[in-house]
Amino acid sequence: MDLCRNDVIGVFDAMSRSVTTGKDLLTSLDADLGDGDLGLTMVNGFYAICQFMARDDAPADTAQLLMQAGFTMAETVPSTMGTLVSTGIIRAGKAAPVRGDIDAAAGLEMFRAAVEGIAVRSKAKRGEKTLLDALYPALEAWEAALSTGGDIAACMDAASRAADLAVVATAGLLSVHGKAAVFGDQSIGKPDPGASAIAMIMRGAREWFLRSVTG
User: Fold this and answer.
1) Rounded to whole angstroms, how far apart are CA atoms 178 and 176?
2) Which residue, of 83, 182, 208, 213, is most buried by count of CB atoms within 10 Å of its CB?
3) What is the pLDDT of residue 188?
């Protein structure tokens, strides 16, 4: 299956539901290593995107829809995580096909653009206990699934599962960025909140694909 504009809207609705369901968990994780506002940030940010996408005057072009959705999130939740996630959405929109639907190959390029944009904006590297530690494994899993002939649903499934596993691995890392860095060695043993949010977002997308494929 490929994604049309309405499918993209459906995916974001599913992402919004996922972070809303997981709000308390994200808040708890962030309270251990940050301000404790991550759950609210993600809920408000994705709610704003869904409200924007439902408007009659929302762009008919998927690329423009994604870019403006990213700007909407950035304006609604101008926190560190809100800025990074919105950057990823904007970059994905810029890399989206100018015409036609989004297939697995186009999805990979959009995903890659999103991750690279977040890496530049965050000034972080893999292994530094940030959202990138979920994004890079997910990107690699998508690429691997695509190389074996997987469609976009299979690629998303692989990417989401990789992100879930990567979150567990972040517990063994030392936080070196943001407010989490002040915890030093005490950050070891706790999963990264940002990576956890990414996994939760991707889990929502995976569930949307599962419902769409199975009918």
Assistant:
1) 7
2) 208
3) 87
| pLDDT tens-digit map of 13-39 | 999 999 999 999 999 999 987 788 999
Q: What is the pLDDT, as a whole number, of residue 181?
A: 63
The CATH number of domain 5-214 is 3.90.1150.10: no
* CB-based contact 144:158 (threshold 8 Å): yes
* Confidence category of residue 185, pLDDT binned at 50, 70, 90: low
- pTM for the predicted model, two decimal places: 0.95
The per-residue pLDDT for 100 is 86
Angstrom distance (rounded) from CA 158 to CA 179 = 31
CA separation (Å) from 124 to 128, 148, 176, 177?
A: 7, 31, 9, 8
